[in-house]
Amino acid sequence: MKLSALLSAITGRLIVSCQASEGHALRHTGTLARVARAAADGRAAAIRCGGVGGVADVTAVAEAVDVPVIGLTKSGREGVFITPTVEAARSVAATPAAVVALDGTARPRPDGSALRDGIAAVHELGKLAMADVSTAAEGIAAADAGADLVATTLSGYTPNSRRTEGPDLALVGELAAALPEVPIVAEGRYHAPEQAAEAIRAGAASVVVGTAITDPTWITRSFAEAVTTAGGEHVGR
Ligand SMILES: CC(=O)N[C@H](C=O)[C@@H](O)[C@H](O)[C@H](O)COP(=O)(O)O
């Protein structure tokens, strides 16, 4: 898929991330493919998927939905863990995913490669590359390395990034101003529709929402906590 075709599908629209970590009740490829279908039925413009489920999840989701898929692999939680090697980038690019998401920070990669190498491997297989960054400087470097899209995914998850409780809307604005030619994707801790709308107003081409839509354990916990707190107040009256 060409970048222009992807952009006509996702610009000004919502992307849903359908991933589940090891041990999560939804950590099942077929189940996540169903979750992706439900999100597409709700008008998600694209699905981001893979994670610890790797290329099996990406392939199953791509078969289940008729919107573009952004694929990634995840290994570990330390240092570079999103599509961390050239081999991982190549394996995701070989699936039906239209876009490969990969760590776009300047930290050392497990295989000693540079971001530019991973992006080149993705492009060789005719796919688009989304760089997941944590700061504006990383986004600028990622665009220079050939990234087709830059996403704020890693803000709050690297030692040198801001740790906002909610989404890092400021980073969206900074990237949009610094890279007017590059589509910026807002991602990470968007927990309410109004926050997602705010990201578009801040200059994002598109917004990725994961946990708040596709993690029923997280959603339940937030309701349960609210109810328990009210219950405690009630008992204390
Ligand atoms: C930091 C990291 O590993 N982010 C991952 C990237 O693919 C996913 O675990 C997130 O769910 C995704 O970025 C969407 O964000 P949120 O779930 O906050 O809406």
TrEMBL record:
InterPro entries: Aldolase_TIM (IPR013785), NanE (IPR007260), RibuloseP-bd_barrel (IPR011060). It comes from the Bacteria. It holds the Pfam family NanE. It is an enzyme of class 5 (isomerase). The keyword Transport does not apply. Keywords: Carbohydrate metabolism, Isomerase. SUPFAM superfamilies: Ribulose-phoshate binding barrel. It catalyses: an N-acyl-D-glucosamine 6-phosphate = an N-acyl-D-mannosamine 6-phosphate. Pathway: Amino-sugar metabolism; N-acetylneuraminate degradation; D-fructose 6-phosphate from N-acetylneuraminate: step 3/5. The keyword Cell membrane does not apply. Its EC number is 5.1.3.9. One of its GO terms (molecular function) is N-acylglucosamine-6-phosphate 2-epimerase activity. Converts N-acetylmannosamine-6-phosphate (ManNAc-6-P) to N-acetylglucosamine-6-phosphate (GlcNAc-6-P). Belongs to the NanE family. This is N-acylglucosamine-6-phosphate 2-epimerase. It comes from Saccharopolyspora cebuensis. The lineage of its organism: Bacteria, Bacillati, Actinomycetota, Actinomycetes, Pseudonocardiales.
